[in-house]
């Protein structure tokens, strides 16, 4: 039995959502109204490029968030008096 934790499950659902939304856009007449002179091949290429762009954005979002979490683990905040915070890096 395969157990998937909540974060991986939500990431998988976001990828599936992008693919389903791109398929729905491709099946609707929105692409025809946006680009009236395009044929079926142009429409398919448009939907594939839209899907790749959205998936690339999700991937970059995932990479940036994980990098920020790793950096946040290496920084500690200390309260200095009544005025503010002092940063120090943990090595």
Write the layout of secondary structure elements.
Layout: H1 6-27, H2 30-34, H3 40-73, E1 75-80, E2 84-89
Antiparallel strand pairs: 1-2
Q: What does this entry look like structurally?
A:
The protein has one domain. Helices cover 67% and strands 13% of the residues. It has helices spanning 6-27, 30-34, 40-73, and strands at residues 75-80, 84-89. It has a two-stranded antiparallel sheet with strand order 1-2. Helix 1 (6-27) packs antiparallel against helix 3 (40-73).
Percent in helix? 55-70%
Main β-sheet description: 2 strands, antiparallel
Evaluate the radius of gyration: 22 Å
Q: Write down the domain tally.
A: 1
Number of helices: 3
- As laid out across the biggest beta sheet, the strand order is 1-2
Spell out the helices and strands N to C.
HHHEE
The coarse silhouette is elongated
Distance between the termini: 39 Å
Tags for this entry?
91 residues; alpha+beta; two-stranded antiparallel ribbon; elongated
Brief description of this entry?
The protein has 91 residues and is of the alpha+beta class.
